[in-house]
Amino acid sequence: MLKSTDAGVKKPAQKKKAKKSGSRPNQKAKQALQKMHAFFKAHRDDDECKNMPFSEQQKVLGKLWKASPDNPKNAGV
After folding, report:
1. What is the pLDDT along the chain (77 residues), one digit of tens a residue?
2. Superkingdom of the source (predicted)?
3. Are 40 and 65 in contact (CB under 8 A)?
4. Burial of residue 24 (number of CB atoms within 10 Å: 0-12, 13-18, 19+)
5. Which pTM value belongs to this model?
6. Alpha carbons 26 and 42: distance in angstroms, whole number
7. Ramachandran angles phi, psi of 14, nearest 5°
8. Got the DSSP string for 7-68?
9. C-alpha distances out from residue 15 to 7, 8, 12, 18, Å
């Protein structure tokens, strides 16, 4: 049986990062995406989107979403 030697390059111990209080930006992005999906679902059957192919619907709904007051990006502006 071989004896273990402590030869070799040693990596320094990593410091633990301090946890930030409050919500993480990732959580905000998830909430914004959920709101966008709900908006798309609610407005998909509107008259202006009803008889369009799916890809065209997505484009129109995206434009509506950008200007919508439901969009969290428009809340601060």
Report:
1. 667 777 778 888 888 777 666 656 688 889 999 999 999 999 998 888 888 899 999 999 999 999 999 998 987 75
2. Eukaryota
3. yes
4. exposed
5. 0.62
6. 24
7. -85, 140
8. -SPPPPPPPPPPPPSS--HHHHHHHHHHHHHHHHHHHTTSTTTTTS-HHHHHHHHHHHHHH-
9. 23, 22, 9, 9
Tally the residues of the chain: 77
Token pair of 76 as six digits: 């601060």
Can you read off the two tokens belonging to residue 20?
A: 């930030």
Q: Are 72 and 31 in contact (CB under 8 A)?
A: yes
Could you give the 3-state DSSP secondary structure of residue 72? helix
